[in-house]
Write a structure and sequence with these properties.
The protein has 117 residues and is mainly beta. The chain has strands at 3-7, 10-13, 18-25, 33-39, 46-51, 58-60, 68-73, 78-83, 92-99, 105-107, 111-116. Strands 2, 4, 5, 6, 9, 10 and 11 form a seven-stranded mixed beta sheet that branches. Strands 1-3-8-7 form a four-stranded antiparallel beta sheet, with no helix packed on it.
Length: 117
C-alpha cells in the first residue's frame, strides 16, 4: 500500500521557520522525483519545490527561492522541506508528491502551515 505521510506543519510567526517531512512507503522511493506543492484557500495548487531521484537536481518557485530548501534521505524514504523567513503568504496546506514518467503519481494528505503576521 502506497503511503505518503506529511508532518511538521503548524502555526509560526512571520519570519520564523518550519521543517516539513514526508515519509514514504509502499513504493521504491529512491527512483522517484519528489515534489512539494501547496494550496491556499480559494487558490489553485502551486508547485513549490522539486528534487530529482538521487537528489542531484532541485528547483523552486520564484515565491520561495532563497528561503525554502528541499532535500531527501533515501535511507529513510523521506523528503524534507526546510522553510525559513516565513511570510503570511506562505500560509497553505502543503502536500508531498511522488512522480515517475511511467504515470505513477502519489499524493499525501497534506499538512497545514499557518504564518501569523
Amino acid at each position: 500500500q502506497v503511503q505518503l505521510v506529511e508532518s511538521g506543519g503548524g502555526l509560526v510567526q512571520s519570519g520564523g521557520s518550519l521543517r516539513l517531512s514526508c515519509a514514504a512507503s509502499g513504493f521504491f522511493f529512491r527512483i522517484y522525483d519528489m515534489y512539494w506543492y501547496r494550496q491556499a484557500p480559494r487558490q489553485e495548487r502551486e508547485l513549490v519545490a522539486r528534487i530529482s531521484s538521487g537528489g542531484g537536481s532541485t528547483g523552486y518557485s520564484d515565491s520561495v527561492a532563497g528561503r525554502f530548501t528541499i532535500s531527501r534521505d533515501d535511507g529513510k524514504n523521506t523528503v524534507y522541506l526546510q522553510m525559513n523567513s516565513l511570510k503570511s503568504e506562505d500560509t497553505a496546506v502543503y502536500y508531498c508528491n511522488a512522480w515517475r514518467n511511467n504515470g505513477n503519481d502519489y499524493w499525501g494528505q497534506g499538512t497545514q502551515v499557518t504564518v501569523s503576521s
